[in-house]
Amino acid sequence: MRSPRATPAKPATTARVASRRTTQRIAAIDIGSNSIRALVADVSADGAIAVVDEMKAQPRLGTEVDATGVLGEQAIERAVEAIARMSALAKKLGAERIEAVATSAVRDAGNAARFLGRVKQETGLQVRVLQGSDEARLSFRSALAHFDLAVGRWVVMDIGGGSLEIALSVDGVVDDLRSLPFGALRLTERYLAEGVTLKALRRLRRDVRDGLRAVLPVREWRGARVIGSGGTFTNLAGMTLARQRMLAARTVHA
Asked: What are the residues whose beta carbons fall under 8 Å from the beta carbon of 167, sequence distance 6 or more?
């Protein structure tokens, strides 16, 4: 009796094609007040992310926005050049989709439309300007992907160049989303432009403390756990570890 003919296995190339269909290579460009970051990653249908490449530039787009209310021409040129370079590299790496968002500096600038038009003209990208609450919500979602926030009160803080985003949650549910003008670049220009003096530091600390107390009532949020997000917190954590003569990790959960 002859054995039934075995069904031939699918070629490896077919399997790879099927695998590729379940993932999409996406690039995200985050246009901040101080730095611009780009991430190229393969995103699967279940939300898993595999980083392909990362890029960073520091055009300081938000320089003097707090004082003048507009983006400077030189800062615009630096930022547009960086975005064009990142977009070109993302396409070279095979990104099927490129999403670009802008935050505090562009949100607050009176000439934001001019900047967005330049980016569109040079790169073809339609930049989406995030509101402060959008930034805070995204910061919370990022923290949720790395930490168990299901129990207790949590405060997620993200310090950027132009603003500080705060997400308050209770037992895993967002209670409030806030955005305050306490970014590292903005505070440096506002309080320390003429040098770091004891008087200037006291004024800076007082104003930040008063602003935070208005958002975080001490009685309600005493004992809450805090998660710091963003480069400023990473640098602070690195400085703390260095003082303790410990090597700073590439990514620090502060």
From this structure: 136, 137, 139, 140, 143, 155, 156, 174, 176, 177, 178
